[in-house]
Design goal:
By secondary structure, this protein is an alpha+beta fold. Helices cover 19% and strands 33% of the residues. The structure holds beta-D-mannopyranose.
Length: 886
């Protein structure tokens, strides 16, 4: 008997753990069914204990059936796991208190993915969507004594392939990922993390499991399933209001009173209300007392992130029946697309609390192939690393997962703006009724779960699917194009957009990224060229063009993806490899590279400006190669990001007013080459240290045009500054500047980029000893009347491979213990570019790294993330600079 089947179930009440603490005075009971379950494969040859939440892969590894899934070629060796079907089983006994409750729900916060659920041998229903919660009413099925709960999971690979086969009318591309990814086919036919079938930075581990919690919820009369609150500002009345939405599950019709209050703002309102049997959603609005100045939530770098406590209490006949508390953060967000003077097209920027804000940050991918292995510490460390690199925004990319609540809670607290994609990427999708239905439910649930977070400033329908259609990635015949466009509009516009806007009017919705935004809409949602720099956001990649030449880059309104690959450091690769893997031409090195020609592209890009490693010792040559890929990546992304930041105030040849730079990508899913700035495990690549500078609130940027050197002062501050540029010219052979030039003081208004220095390079060099482009280089900084503002930056006048006089610097180091960290004092004999300190597998980070050393001595700090000592650090420390690798 099929008692209850839904494509997707309803919410549970503990969704906001950490943000909301909900309790019912009706003695609602919750019994967790998390913990040890039994797991078996289809023919019963494997039977093992398995942790819930968890997945089959993690369970097999934890029980010793398989070794480290990330070791060497194991992604391929363990392919069989996801080709099998698996069953999770648990037993539990009921307490007397629970069995007398009027209603009992069995709740699954996340099933991965295609499951059949049965209780005591009776089928409860099926699951098809990893991003949905499912619940089942089970009171009548529960027994005194032992109850048996079983979840059978189908192989996601076989299920996707079956779905594909059943879809006979036309192809929904792509059929399979590129061979280099060693992945599985037809992931677009299953509502599951799209990158779990492989990506160009990640392995194929199509997981199966109960990836979130399982529990019983028992109650009388009613329970509060979910609460969300969205603050809205009324300009005409200069007044805030908070829209509170309650999802209530009532056993019978219930009448009563509801009181909403924010005591700190002297705001309280009471409503007479009633709840019908079943699940109902009700909205209530509390007006905020205008006598109070509401403290606003600001993005990192623009102010604080204060919140208020909202209390919600329900009464029946004067008795309190439920009470809950949540956080409310006040802020407004607008996406401004309007004509720009001197430029065709439309602007594209965010205004938070009325202030235009330049978005600085990166793109977020899943932290691990096995979500059950993502710990709070890992999340905190990555998000803190983003903030420590002066980022204020992250895009949660649409090929991964909607992140867990803690992710958004931390973003709220740190002031990280989140560009939230829906989970569709680089593909076309089916539009059969079942598929659309489950997607609609997914969107409702995710928006309800997440909309209280001020950090989320935009919803975005998909990753690159407009571009894929517009620029014909999949070779769709022209005659069939209209059908694919109709399907596209049906999924993202008629369904996702519509559902989102019914659920949340408090932030913008964009159909795709990249897109021309309002212009794409004009063109029927698929623009002729979604990469048009005059509109919307742009993704731009070129691995072949010279990344040191800013003319390479499109001057976009908003750069939401761009980047270059690099390899992680040796200490990250070592635990998943063996000696024979440690060369750039090894099978391992090519196996971990999932982007066609990626390893070669890195070397070619590096060779444009650097000598390549030529050590005879194979290990040194390998580690030097890892190093040079990081140098290349850091310098490339620096050049591109600085170009975007200095383009914020200008329109040149009709292009500019750039207001966002989110490079691809922040983090890694495993130990492999990728575009990330942070390695798997949390170690910062050179790029992340560079980001700390190139995202600084105040930044000097240099570039050349027609042999003239320009320096721009960029300021994200609110107040105006008066700044001068100070340029130091160094010879590659000496540690003291050959000469110093000062510009005059100029006004740098808050939120602008202003040219503060301009001089033909020839004039500059002529006035500076015997300097030529080959013998000298520049450092520069900004100063106000009393001190330096922002970091010191550098500009090379030639490729370092052509530099005359660059010598081995023989850098020595002394490590000392300080109160809360260690200091490393370096001594150098000569100018040293890209000085890289590495303490192997001692986790932690330096205060600065990858820097240009133009002084005899320099001290940096190392903060360790576990106990260590001067002796251990000294023994582990290696120092590499550019001249040390050839
Ligand atoms: C963009 C992303 C990802 C991809 C990255 C690097 O297209 O959206 O799909 O990993 O480029 O190729």
């Amino acid at each position: 008997m099929l008692l209850h089947e839904r494509l997707c179930g309803w919410a549970c009440w503990c969704l906001f753990s950490g943000v909301f603490s909900v309790f019912s005075l009706q003695q609602r009971l919750t019994v967790s069914l998390n913990g040890k379950w039994r797991l078996s494969n289809s023919n019963g040859s494997l039977l093992l204990p398995a942790q819930v939440p968890g997945c089959v892969h993690s369970a097999l590894q934890q029980q010793g059936y398989i070794t480290d899934l990330y070791f060497r070629f194991n992604d391929v060796s363990y392919r069989w796991i996801a080709l099998d079907n698996w069953t999770y089983t648990t037993t539990f006994t009921l307490s007397a208190e629970l069995s007398v409750k009027q209603k009992v729900l069995l709740v699954f916060d996340g099933v991965d993915t295609v499951g059949s659920i049965s209780l005591n041998g009776i089928a409860l229903g099926k699951t098809y969507n990893m991003f949905c919660r499912y619940d089942f009413s089970v009171k009548d099925l529960l027994k005194d004594g032992e109850n048996v709960l079983q979840v059978g999971l189908l192989s996601p690979i076989l299920y996707a392939s079956e779905q594909r086969k059943a879809h006979t009318s036309y192809v929904v591309p792509p059929e399979c990922p590129p061979g280099v990814q060693k992945g599985e086919c037809h992931v677009n036919f299953i509502r599951k993390e799209q990158s779990s079938f492989s990506w160009d930075w990640g392995p194929s581990f199509p997981t199966m499991g109960l990836w979130k919690g399982v529990r019983l919820e028992a109650f009388d009369i009613l329970q509060l399933v979910q609460v969300s609150s969205v603050p809205l500002y009324n300009d005409a009345f200069s007044q805030w209001r908070v829209q509170v939405e309650l999802l209530i599950d009532a056993v019978q019709t219930a009448r009563g009173q509801l009181t909403l209050s924010i005591p700190e703002l002297d705001s309280e309102q009471t409503f007479q209300t009633h709840f019908n049997p079943g699940k109902t959603k009700s909205n209530f609005t509390i007006l905020i007392n205008t006598a109070h100045q509401v403290k606003l939530w600001w993005p990192n770098g623009h102010g604080e992130q204060p919140f208020y406590r909202l209390t919600i209490r329900g009464f029946q006949d004067q008795f309190l029946i439920f009470s809950t508390e949540s956080k409310v953060y006040f802020r407004t967000v607008e996406l401004i697309q309007e004509p720009v003077v001197g430029s065709p097209g439309l602007s594209f920027y965010f205004r938070i609390n009325g202030k235009p804000i330049f978005l600085k940050g990166s793109n977020w991918i899943p932290v691990h192939s096995f979500q059950d292995q993502v710990t709070p510490d890992v999340l905190k460390n990555l998000l803190q690393s983003a903030v420590d690199a002066n980022m204020n925004a992250l895009r949660v990319w649409g090929g991964g997962v909607y992140e867990q609540d803690l992710f958004y809670e931390i973003c709220d607290e740190l002031g990280i703006m989140v560009w939230q994609d829906f989970m569709f990427a680089c593909a076309m999708y089916p539009t059969e009724t079942d598929f659309i239905q489950t997607v609609r439910e997914e969107v409702v649930q995710q928006v309800q779960r997440l909309k209280s977070h001020p950090s989320i400033i935009i919803w975005s329908g998909n990753n690159e699917n407009e571009a894929a259609l517009a620029t014909d990635w999949f070779g769709i015949p022209a005659s069939q194009r209209p059908k694919y466009i109709r399907d596209y509009v049906m999924l993202y516009v008629d369904n996702i957009k519509k559902v989102v806007q019914e659920e949340d009017q408090s932030r913008p919705f964009l159909v795709s990224s990249p897109t021309n935004g309002a212009e794409s809409e004009q063109e029927g949602w698929v623009a002729e060229n979604p990469y048009d720099p005059h509109y919307g956001d742009v993704h731009f990649y070129s691995y072949i063009l010279d990344c040191w030449d800013w003319r390479t880059f499109p001057r976009t309104r908003f750069a939401s993806e761009y980047g270059f690959q690099s390899w992680p450091s040796f200490s990250t690769l070592q635990p998943v490899s063996i000696k024979e893997d440690w060369s750039y031409g090894s099978n391992f090195t090519s196996h971990r590279q999932h982007h066609e020609d990626g390893n070669q592209q890195m070397i070619l890009q590096a060779a444009l400006h650097f000598h390549l490693p030529n050590a005879t010792d194979p290990l040194k040559r390998f580690t030097d190669t890892l190093y040079i890929t990081q140098v290349m990546q850091a310098q490339c992304v620096k050049t591109q990001t600085e170009f975007y930041r200095r383009s914020r105030s200008e329109i040149i040849e009709g292009k500019g007013h750039t207001m966002g730079a989110l490079y691809w990508q922040l983090n890694d899913i495993w130990q492999a080459p990728s575009w990330s700035s942070i390695e798997f495990g949390g170690k910062w690549k050179m790029l992340h240290y560079f980001a700390q500078s190139f995202f600084a609130a105040v930044l000097p940027v240099a570039f050349e045009e027609d042999d003239t050197l320009f320096i721009y002062a960029i300021s994200d501050l609110s107040r105006d500054l008066k700044l001068r540029a100070v340029v130091n010219v160094f010879s590659w052979t000496e540690l003291d500047p050959v000469c110093t030039l000062n510009s005059s003081m100029l006004l740098v208004p808050g939120g602008s980029a202003v040219a503060v220095f301009k001089q033909p390079v020839a004039t500059l060099l002529a006035g500076c000893g015997n300097c030529t482009r080959l013998t000298c280089l520049l450092t520069f900084q900004l100063e106000d009347d009393s001190s330096q503002q922002g970091p010191t930056n550098h500009h090379f006048l030639c490729s370092p491979k052509d530099a005359q006089g660059l010598r081995r610097p023989n850098i020595t180091a002394k490590v000392e213990e300080k109160k809360t960290c260690f200091s490393v004092t370096l001594h150098s004999d000569s100018v040293a570019p890209f000085v890289w300190l590495d303490v192997g597998n001692i986790p932690g980070r330096f205060s600065s790294n990858g820097f240009l050393m133009v002084s005899r001595n320099r001290t940096v700090d190392f903060t360790a993330w576990r106990p260590t000592s001067v002796a251990e650090l000294t023994a582990s420390l290696t120092i590499t600079s550019l001249r040390d690798i050839y």
